[in-house]
Write a structure and sequence with these properties.
By secondary structure, the protein is mainly alpha-helical. The protein has 7 helices and 2 strands. The chain has a two-stranded antiparallel ribbon with strand order 1-2. A hairpin with a 2-residue loop joins strand 1 and strand 2. Helix 2 packs across helix 6. The longest helix is centred in the middle third of the chain and has 17 residues. The protein is globular. The termini are close together.
Length: 155
């Protein structure tokens, strides 16, 4: 997607809008793909909307008083999670020569970033929470080296 932004600046029409998407997946399929690429078990239980609604409604109310604590637990996030957001990038591909990165490659890059910046670690090939999770970041604890993926290499 970052490469698509550069293409839009270089080749795009002023004022035009481009969707820089990729593969259309359901949320459940997306989570399953993340689990497969990460080498961890996929979620086994999908909670229905009705079971999550009381928590989201409570988060929406408390978020007005404590917005920092409840910014990700509210009705807007819940409703968005249950919508199907399918889009096409045909215009970007046609006008910008935008190439869609496979979802597995994007997930690999994302996991690599999380590991590189300490949000996750690989322990015996398994991903576990890293030093930065819940404020536990310690600059003295070494992270495993991870090959860098840069925008310049992709362009």
């Amino acid at each position: 997607v970052a490469a698509g932004h550069v293409l839009a600046m270089e080749r795009g029409e002023t004022g035009a809008r481009y969707i820089l998407g990729g593969e259309n997946l359901s949320f459940q399929s997306y989570l399953s793909r993340i689990a497969a690429v990460a080498g961890v078990p996929a979620p086994r239980i999908a909670l229905p909307y009705a079971a999550l609604y009381p928590f989201a409604a409570t988060g929406s109310i408390l978020g007005r008083v404590l917005p920092g604590l409840f910014r990700d637990v509210n009705l807007c996030v819940l409703n968005s999670a249950f919508l199907e957001h399918y889009v096409r990038s045909a215009k970007a591909a046609r006008e910008l020569a935008y190439e869609i990165t496979s979802i597995d490659r994007a997930i690999e890059d994302g996991i690599r970033w999380f590991v590189e910046y300490g949000y996750m670690n690989r322990v015996s090939g398994v991903l576990v929470p890293g030093n930065r999770v819940a404020g536990r970041f310690s600059p003295t604890e070494p992270l495993e080296p991870v090959p860098r993926t840069t925008l310049s290499r992709r362009l």
